Amino acid sequence: MPNLVKNQAILQKEASEILDKLGLLDFLSKFGNAKIIGSVALGLMTWRDIDMDLAVDELKEDDYFRTVQYLFNKPEVKKLLLADNRIRTEQIIAQGIPESMYLGIFVRGEGESEWKIDLRFVKDSLVRAEKYIDGIKSRLNDENREIILNIKNTICTHPKYINKEIFGVDIYNSVLDGGVKNLADFIKYLANKGIEL
How confident is the model at residue 10 (pLDDT cuts 50, 70, 90)? Predict the structure, then answer.
């Protein structure tokens, strides 16, 4: 089994280098407060994925498309995926996605590696991630960190994870609040919630 804790540290370093190379945090600071969230903020990385919120007073299409143009001109950026989550469909609401404008950024890393950056332009009043992240971080220790990394590493290619039927937060809650110690426990935990893995 790979050393997932060591791998996590390597991914953290690479994530920082990718963001520095793109100059993304500096660029976004013109429009609002850019925050790294998700597994990068928690030190629970198992693959090359960065989640970011840009907290703004109001959602401005001009700022969003200036960011698109900025990234489009970066040679490291291979592809951009745009989505308008201001339109409140049942699916968006069910997934807990706030009113926002989304940018999926696919970036060339070292060698053949590829990174995905999920960036949301979201109203300040709807940003809840920071408080949640602080709460999770305060409860992490060596043992539960390794359990979370092992489960995440095992299910990261599962269709229900890829299609956002199961989230990282489900894993964190199962380990920190549900007493889950391994994948078998996690499968039972989901089954009790009516989710089949």
Answer: very high
Q: How far apart are CA 136 and CA 51, in angstroms?
A: 16
Q: In sequence order, what are the beta bridge partners of 108?
A: 114
Residue 186 one-letter amino acid? F
Q: How far is CA 121 from the centre of its chain?
A: 14
What pTM did the predictor assign?
A: 0.87
| Residue among 146, 153, 142 at smallest CA distance from 181 | 146
Angstrom CA distances, 132 to 136, 139, 160, stand at: 6, 11, 23
**92-126 tens-digit pLDDT:** 777 777 889 999 999 998 888 899 999 999 988 66
For domain 4-130, is the CATH number 3.30.460.10?
yes
Estimate to the nearest angstrom the gap between the alpha carbon of 195 and the chain centroid: 22
Distance between CA atoms of residues 117 and 28, nearest Å:
14
Q: Name the phi and psi angles at 123, rounded to 5.
A: -65, 140
